[in-house]
Amino acid sequence: MNESPEKVNTPLDPDLMYADLEKKIRAAGHSMDLGRIRAAYDMAKRAHEGQLRKDGSPYVTHCVAAADISVDLGLDEDSICAALLHDVIEDTALTHADIAHSFGSAVADIVEGVTKLTRVQYTSKEDEQMENLRKMLMAMAKDIRVILIKIADRLHNMRTMDYQTPDKQRTKSLETMEIYAPIAHRLGMQQAKWELEDLSLRYLDPAGYKEITDYLNSRMADLEGFMSSVDEKIQTRLESEGIQASIFSRIKHVYSIYRKMYAQKLDINGIFDLCAFRVIVDSLPDCYNVLGVIHDMFKPVPGRFKDYISTPKPNMYQSLHTTVIGSEGIPFEVQIRTWEMHHTAEYGIAAHWKYKMDGGGSAVREGDEEKFAWVRHLLEDQQESDAQDFFHDLKIDMFADEVFVFSPKGDVINLPAGATPIDFAYNIHSDVGNHMVGAKVNGRIVTFDYALQNGDIVEIRTSKSAPGPSRDWLNIVKSGSARTKIKQWYKKERREENILRGMEMLEDELRHNDLDLDDMQDEAIMAPVLKRLSYATADDMYAAIGYGGVTAVRVANRMRDEQKALLAEKKSVLDKVSAAAERREERARKEGKAVHGILVEGLDNCLVKFSRCCTPVPGDEIIGFITRGQGVSIHRKDCQNYRRRKADDASEGRWIKVTWASQITDSYVTTITIAAKDRSGLVMDIATVLNSLNAKVRNLSARDNSGLALVVITLEVQGSAELRQIMNKLAAVPSVTEVSRNGTRG
Ligand code: MN
Questions:
Q1: For the ranges 46-50, 89-93, 129-133, 221-225, which has the lowest average pLDDT?
Q2: Structural contact between residues 291 and 309, judged by C-beta atoms closer than 8 angstroms
Q3: Ligand 1 center to residue 88 CA distance, Å?
Q4: Ligand 1 centre and the CA of 85: distance in Å?
Q5: What pLDDT is stored for residue 464 in this prediction?
Q6: I need a labelling partner for 478 at 20 to 30 A (CA). Which of 53, 240, 374, 619 fits?
Q7: Would you call 509 a catalytic residue per the annotation?
Q8: Spatial distance between the Cα atoms of 304 and 300, rounded to a whole number of angstroms
Q9: Ligand 1 centre from 116 Cα, in Å?
Q10: What does the alpha-carbon distance between residue 307 and residue 540 come to, in Å, rounded to a whole number?
Q11: Cα(131) to centroid of ligand 1, in Å?
């Protein structure tokens, strides 16, 4: 299967490699059960029997190599067993149960975790997608050891990538560059990160990689000479200052030079600080002492000093960084840190375990970023428990409130933990959510309330004739945006339904308060309610109640308040009108004026009263009727009583001619009736007209007769001209059908 026949190599012997691994474990001084680790090796070897790597070696050599890197990372016994077995679930007949049976569920869980990560489909995406994919992998891993073994696995695969096809080299390198190197960086594993980056670059831009390595090789002698002279200068000076320090120098890794060339648009000759020095000391104060010495010896480049000791990086990295210019004008970088910080920088999280197991102190400082609080927490816990227990607790919970799933196209969608397929659908697009009729997760149909798991591939089935979201969905969804979109749908698509539903809800609510929605239709109530709640129409408001934009309680309370205010206002208008009339009558009585102005033919000073049936006023044609003992009663000539009775025998001779006096000083009481289509605000409008005409109203009463309102008004006027004017104005009030004087019709 070797794609490059010119590459000939001797197949590796897994047993020899395994013997070296055992030696390494023993040398590290760990108290591990080597029998158990060997059993894991034997199981892996049997399971992968007959499988070969591209280089022709038995497949299990890859497993041993991954375990070897895991030992370098300082991982525990379970992890080393899991590293040896990391490909058996994916590539052989063995199952989780088989591993659990022989090595316990912890090892089996780790292997299964690595398998899940291996199965995640990778396609290159824009940055945000990449970040989500990285988070998804971290979240899927659950146990940090899964990630670390996956990194060990990837590191070995990258080291042996020469044997793969160019296509696979490219894909794997891209994936490594975009996913695994950043994860290694996030976990603070600088060594692994650099190696992953350099190996990836070698396949992604072979020419660029070669240019830099060729250049470095050609200048190696120079650079090494420069480095050793600087090394010696610093060493001598520190000794004279009494500071104990170890100095390391290195040429920067290829990818960091490459990135700098691109970022600063320089060619390789323009990159000066190819060398980096690291001064490692025993104590934190010494770090700052060393910094002072370095800045005294060499000229610092302005703006390049960084104090990551007082402000550690999110991945807990701590160091002082500075760039200075050497005697030959060559700039170089110096990093200053303690041994403890150094372990954290080189091995990241893994260093903490190793450190603890070696009896070193915890390197985690207070004030680290919140997302690494879990590490700190675990390290605190660790002090009471032994290392083995500690590993069991080392779960990744930094993304506990998020879940990462795939769309069928491979996009990573980030949702709140517990999110359902409905949340997913609305995240894709409102239309997808609104037309959703079903969902599949990893190819299987699930219910709408299924809680999505990290790494799930979610597929939404839609239909043009979908009924739209159900109201129950509002209780199922976890994301605010899905909830908003569902509400929006109800707002738009179901207006008629919402109006009816809203009216029902409001009626219910009003009924609880002994109120009736019909009474609230009064313009004087509805208009201020709508204005106050910012709705253009009553239907808009009912619809809003229907879809949940406003509560029925809020609207009902507002209506109740407006109704109270209106009733109070009406009462005060009528009170004022009748109080004014009373005052005028009072005055008339005091002044002793008789109700007069009538000339009765042939009689002076006779008792005169105005009939109640037709209430004549000056200007009306009138006639008198001689009553028995109560003087002359005055009627209008068009009064129906007069018309009916003028011809009957009993009243023969009792009708008498009367006329109005030429000077009228009194006012006269008369009654009119207004007929109108009943509507809200009618009485208010009538009262307003009367007020505006300064009409002297004595009484006003209204009654409703199946939609027809009859308003009877008793008022004082000077004469028929004034009365006509009032009646004309009243006739113009909207919905008034007729204004008539009393007594004219039967
Ligand atoms: Mn592997």
A1: 129-133
A2: no
A3: 9
A4: 9
A5: 86
A6: 374
A7: no
A8: 8
A9: 12
A10: 61
A11: 23
Could you please report the per-residue DSSP string of 341-355?
HHHHHHHTHHHHHHH
β partners of residue 673:
712, 740
The Cα 45–Cα 88 span in angstroms is 10
Q: Active site residue: 3, 15, 42, 90, which one?
A: 90
Token pair 């390290």: residue: 379
209 or 133: which carries more pLDDT confidence? 209
Looking at residue 333, the DSSP 8-state letter turns out to be: E
How far away, in angstroms, is 309 Cα from ligand 1 center?
37
What are the CA-CA distances from residue 706 to residues 19, 142, 737 (Å)?
Answer: 106, 75, 15
Q: Tell me, what's the pLDDT at 584?
A: 63
Say if residues 655 and 646 touch (Cβ distance below 8 Å): yes
91 catalytically annotated: yes
Non-local (6+) Cβ contacts of 611 within 8 A are: 625, 633, 634, 635, 639, 641, 743
Token pair 């824009």: residue: 126
pLDDT band at 240 (very low <50, low <70, confident <90, very high): very high
Query: 42-68 pLDDT, tens per residue?
Result: 999 999 999 999 889 999 999 999 999
Residue 265: pLDDT band with limits 50, 70, 90: confident
Is pTM, for the whole model, over 0.85? Answer: no
Most confident of 156-165, 493-502, 561-570, 614-623: 156-165
CB-count exposure of residue 563 (10 Å: 0-12, 13-18, 19+): middle
Say how many residues make up the chain.
Answer: 746
Catalytic: which of 15, 42, 91, 231? Answer: 91
CA distance 479 to 403: 12
pLDDT at 320 over 90: yes
**Tokens read off for 742:** 């009393």
